[in-house]
Amino acid sequence: xxLRYGRFAVPDTKARYGRIDxxxxxxxxxxxxxxxxxxxxxxPLAACDRxxxxxxxxxxxxxxxxxxxIEEIGGSEFPKEPILCLKPTSSLLEPGGTIRLPRExxxxxxxxxxxxxxxxxxxxxPVAHALDQVFGYTxxxxxxxxxxxxxxxxxARSKGFDSFxxxxxxxxxxxxxxxxxxxxxxxxVERQAGNTRDMVFSVAEIVSFVxxxxxxxxxxxxxxxxxxxxxxxxxxxxxxxxxxxxxxxRVAVRKxxx
Length: 258
Ligand code: MG
Hints:
There is one protein chain. By secondary structure, the chain is mainly beta. Helices cover about 10% and strands about 40% of the residues. The protein is built from four helices and 20 strands. It has helices at about 65-70, 125-130, 145-150, 205-215; strands spanning about 5-10, 15-20, 25-30, 40-45, 50, 60-65, 85, 90-95, 100, 110, 110-120, 135-140, 145, 165-175, 180-185, 190-195, 220-225, 230, 240-245, 245-255. The longest helix has 11 residues, at about 205-215. It binds magnesium ion. Magnesium ion binds near residues 61, 63, 111, 113 and 142. Magnesium ion binds near residues 61, 111, 113, 142 and 226.
């Protein structure tokens, strides 16, 4: 069964997680991946302001995980193991938020990616049991300052600016992650179109691989790499990222005004 979860701004209290049931949000008393339970409190979905649907302890990204994207960035070989990097949690951006283009970069690019939300604390989980550790799936924008990525040689700065990790709009549990179409559009024009079946490393292989290095906590977020078609974002753009069975994540793009 497919279940949809989000996090919502609630007047006079902090944001709360909820399960979306048709036009109604059924609010939880905590994060569902940390034992939060459904309460009797409900809100009409149309009246809810969405906030970022995850609050991970870490965001792990996989680089070069689709063959056509490896080609477009000038690579010629598939990686032998997943290439990992981290985004800071300060880069998280809510659905409907605004990516802020920093003055340090002349080339900020979109990367649509399938996001994996961990459901159980785990370490060194075998591939065969890796999907049992997953709570659900979401849409992630792994926004990247391509010029700084090339200049720095490592990726912490180029992927780490505030607002460079839009996530959402929902976390969807109970879907198969291995054949989902992904589309990214800028101002309504399609830029990226891919399918998770073309990943070099599958979701199960990635979760297992990451857990060989670090303990994964409930709510942690893994972003699984982008298909080809990455491209530049400019002031005033509207970026839409859509994954089959999950939904459309929309964010605006503005220059950072500081
Ligand atoms: Mg990426």
